[in-house]
Amino acid sequence: MELTERQKRIIQIVKENEPISADNIAKHLYLSKPTLRTDLTILTMTGILDARPKVGYFFAGQNFEPLLFEDLYEKSISEIMVPPVVIKKEATINDAVTMLFMHDVGTLYVTENQVLLGIISRKDLLRSTISNTSINKVPVAMIMTRMPNVVTLQEDERILDAGYKIIQHQIDSLPVISKDNPALVIGKVSKTVVLKHFIDEAMHLKK
């Protein structure tokens, strides 16, 4: 997969104006900073650009390698997903809080016979514990975000697709559903999982 015309233009702008902030790159392109977030992430992760806090972007001098892009972004979600942390719909809010801290996760998936019914985020639980004094009685089904209002991934989607969805929807993790049976949750992909994949690939390239 080749760089897009916009990504090539970003590289040229950085070469001509380094160091340059993301805000100023956006101004050159007459676009908003959030619109460029994914492009800048890709260019930084592939080693084409270097980003320094409070300084800006530099041209790192690395040539774009298609194989590197394939390793980082084109792999299937099924290759990096991890087991989901699930909870039954009858479980209480108190049970959910305990499970969240036991597994050190940001999101729980509410299931019944592996069928995804909804999700509960850390924010949902915080809101509920503050506003509700009966957390030992209220079931999680009362506060969860229900299907089909949950953003999901199919197991054959790309890591790049996961990154787009996480950024676009500003969420911690995505449930991975079966391609053959979209009702079944078979894994999850989180910000941490994606970041670990990038770090593992970078370490592998250094060897």
TrEMBL record:
InterPro entries per the UniProt record, alphabetical: CBS_dom, CBS_dom_sf, Diverse_CBS-Domain, HTH_11, UCP026546_HTH-CBS, WH-like_DNA-bd_sf, WH_DNA-bd_sf
Domain of life: Bacteria
Stretches of the chain forming a coiled coil according to its record: none
Domain CBS: 77-135, 144-207
Keywords: CBS domain
Pfam families the UniProt entry points to: CBS (PF00571), HTH_11 (PF08279)
CDD domains membership: CBS_pair_CcpN
Identification of the protein by name: CBS domain-containing protein
Provenance organism: Carnobacterium divergens DSM 20623
Phylogenetic placement of the source organism: Bacteria, Bacillati, Bacillota, Bacilli, Lactobacillales
